[in-house]
Design brief:
Structural class: alpha+beta
Number of strands: 6
Shape: globular
Order of helices and strands: EEHEEEHEHHH
Helix content: 25-40%
Distance between the termini: 33 Å
Radius of gyration: 14 Å
Low-confidence stretches: 1-6
Number of domains: 1
Strand content: 15-25%
Protein name: tRNA adenosine deaminase-associated protein
Mean pLDDT: 87
Strand order of the largest sheet: 2-1-3-4-5-6
Organism: Actinomadura miaoliensis
Largest sheet: 6 strands, antiparallel
Amino acid sequence: MRHNIWVSYFAAVFAQTPQGWVGTEAMLSEAEDVDDVADLMREAAVESYGDPVVLLVEEDDEWFAIVRLDGEGDPRAFVSAARGDGLGALLQELVGDVPDGETAGDLHLLDDLGVDAERLVELGERALPGDALATIAELAGFGEEFDRLRD
């Protein structure tokens, strides 16, 4: 299923390495499905020898998503405000059918990185998407890499 991604978005992949977190911008405009997203994340993991790998996405400061990949497992995701079009539709494939505007997905995907389910839901419901991702990156330990890529 091809998704047209023409809106303004920020996406970055962060891989945890023995030396710390390494971040790189992610180009999702060519992704046709979630397998393409997972491949992009695996590529970042191989290049940095990192695991886990976390993808942070924010679109037009309207919503954000987090996708996590551990080793050869399937990607898991959390979406702050599900959408049925473009990039949102692509990521929604990971969280299933959810009414537009609702938070959805794996609330525990960042528990071991310092962002528990309660905090994740709070950020999804109450913070601006860019601010939420900055907070998540800081709590998870890759705030400096996130800031470097956002500037």
